[in-house]
Amino acid sequence: MKRITFLLIIILFLLPSHGRAQDVNTYGQGSVILEVEGHACMGDERSRKKTRIMAITETKRKAAEMALTHISSETRIEDFAVSSDIVDAYSQAKVKIIEEKEKGWFTDKFAGECYRIKLKMEVIPDLDRLSKVINKDTLIEEPNAPLTVKLWTDKESYRVGEKIKIYLRVNKPFYARIVYRDVSGKLVQLMPNPYRNDNYFNGGVTYEIPSGNDRFDLQITPPFGKENIILYTSTGDLGKLDLRKAGGVYVVQDSSKGMEAKTRGVAITQKTGSSGPGVAEFSEANIAVSTMK
After folding, report:
1. Hey, how many other C-beta atoms are within 10 angstroms of the C-beta on 31?
2. Full domain range(s) for residue 103
3. What is the Cα–Cα distance from 42 to 230, expressed in whole angstroms?
4. Which of 24, 33, 1 is nearest to 228 (CA)?
5. Cα–Cα distance measured from residue 161 to residue 135, given in angstroms and rounded to the nearest whole number
6. What region, left, alpha or beta, does residue 120 occupy, with left being phi > 0 and alpha being psi -120 to 50 degrees?
């Protein structure tokens, strides 16, 4: 398979790295994924179409409020200015629908015909406001901050025959998926892979990929150009993709958009002892590398 050279080693194991270069890095900007139910009623003046729109609008508003409440309660950073910037970014969030879980009409004896809908949504903070703090190395070491990801490689560009090393660090325990997109657009899932199904990792640890007993190597071969390493992380298990086994990795059968949407189908869990809604924090980081002769 192009760009993936397989090593004949027994079993994959992801090991922490120590003292490696950090020439090229990017930070993942977090969001919150949650499921929320809302409704609206027709009354005397609204059409069914307007009622459905109102139900969706109301559900999005509730999702934004719940995400802000979650981030405000979970963010406990000594630097008040940083904490304030984070909360401010979520107060200006946009809401994106991932999936319709349930929908339908019902009759309320007082309000008449009503429309109920349950949506899985991603609440995305204002990235301009979040950029004030996201690139601070102190945030990646703070487990009481929203899910923060640092992704980097040892170099920005690679020549034929050289091997790419990927490094990642996250501030709290996380589930991860790493995908390599080559210059032709082919998507290869590096992790999890056929020899490591466990994709749950500790926060505050730097991981190197591939390393240890990994059964693949990222060695540069033609064609050359701009390629991407994509890291998805979440506090809940990530959604499943359509995959085909190819040696020590998987080829992703989904399109790029399909992969992004399916990955965001994360498992939503309620925090132990909490009466609030279940949420999952989510973060995506994307780093480009150049390959050449």
Report:
1. 27
2. 31-128
3. 45
4. 24
5. 32
6. beta
pLDDT of residue 20: 40
Using CA atoms, how far apart are residues 40 and 53, in angstroms rounded to an integer?
9
Would you state the torsion angle of the CA atoms of residues 208, 210, 213, 215, taken in this order, to the nearest 10 degrees?
Answer: 160
217 against 155, higher pLDDT = 155
Alpha-carbon 148 to chain mean position: 10
Distance from C-alpha of 101 to C-alpha of 99, rounded to nearest angstrom: 6
Domain end point (choices 128, 150, 177): 128
Instruction: Looking at the structure, tell me whether residues 157 and 268 fall in a common domain.
Output: yes
Please state, in angstroms and rounded to a whole number, the distance separating the CA atoms of residues 280 and 267.
Answer: 7
pLDDT tens for 63-120 read 999 999 999 988 888 888 888 888 999 999 999 999 999 999 999 988 899 999 999 9
pTM for this structure?
Answer: 0.86
Do 158 and 282 belong to one domain? yes
Rounded Cα–Cα distance for residues 107 and 105 (Å): 7
